[in-house]
Amino acid sequence: MCRRLQLTILTVLSLFSMGGHFHLSGQSRSILGLPDRIMSSSRIGKASQRPSLILPPPDTVRMTFPLGGARNVSEDIDFFNYLLDNELRQDAITLVQMPYKDSDTLDFIRAKVLFSDRKLSQAADLFSLVPLESRFGAESFSYRVVSLATLGRLDEASYLLSSGNIPAAFSGSGPYAELAALQRAGLAIMQGKEGEWRSDSALFSYRDYTLAEAERIVSEIGAGRFDAKRKHAGVAALASAVVPGAGKVYSGRLGEGVAAFLTVGSLGAITAENWKKHGGKDWRTIAAGSLCAAFYLGNIYGSYMSVSIERDERVASENALILYHLHLPLRSIFR
Known about the structure:
The protein is mostly helical and 335 residues long. It folds into two domains: 2-41 and 233-318, no CATH class; 73-228, Serine Threonine Protein Phosphatase 5, Tetratricopeptide repeat (Alpha Horseshoe), CATH 1.25.40. 67% of the residues lie in helices and 0% in strands. The protein has helices spanning 2-16, 26-40, 43-46, 77-85, 89-96, 104-116, 120-127, 137-150, 154-161, 177-191, 194-201, 209-226, 233-242, 246-250, 254-278, 283-333. The longest helix has 51 residues, at 283-333.
């Protein structure tokens, strides 16, 4: 039994050391992953699972509006701003469905109410109807970029901000040039475009209080995304083969690493004790050894997978943080 177990472990390690150039069936992944999930879901394992910023999903239901009326929405614009600033979204929704006279301002107000209600696709469409030269053109442009980015339509948002399409106010020495640089830099990080992030983040002055915090966050995330040394799944697997749980610690999951070390170590100690008392062929030794081998291999497999899982979770959390800080300054800037 011992020689077969050694052969199995060496085979698995050789596969992991290839750097991922192998494929396991879904059933095999489930079997190998079960012990790792058990260890990770323990109280100790959960200690390293940090909460992440997750934005609520956009609402795809489109709002309907009445046909044009006689009242001009400009008469109520201050009240709309009051409702939105104080998170009275439902009151704003009720008011915006009144029959107002058609105008660019009405398109803008409806778009902002839709944006606050997470109906981002419809909001982006209405923001696009507001002419850039109008009173709310610059604000509509900025909110449209953020709406498209939040919807995952990063290429469309980047296209709007490209040099050939960007309004004059957002380029050169225009009043919103630094805001545009912030939005381009954030989008570049989410798209994995290191060169564009570096060129746009170099335009940050950190002097405008409405943008300084967002610029700092985007700069830090970009540096971590592009400058940090990338961790390798094969290294994590080999580390956990030498010391159970070490690969989890390497990938940034300390609690899961400690849980794996204690679990595999305890099962190994029980196996050794049974071997010493009852011999290698006793059912108690075989049962404990089988469990130890299963959790040991699961620990290696879990460590291998944890590198990509940790990276994906970190990227998703950072992207949500970027989107939050692209939206956050807009309320202060356009006042």
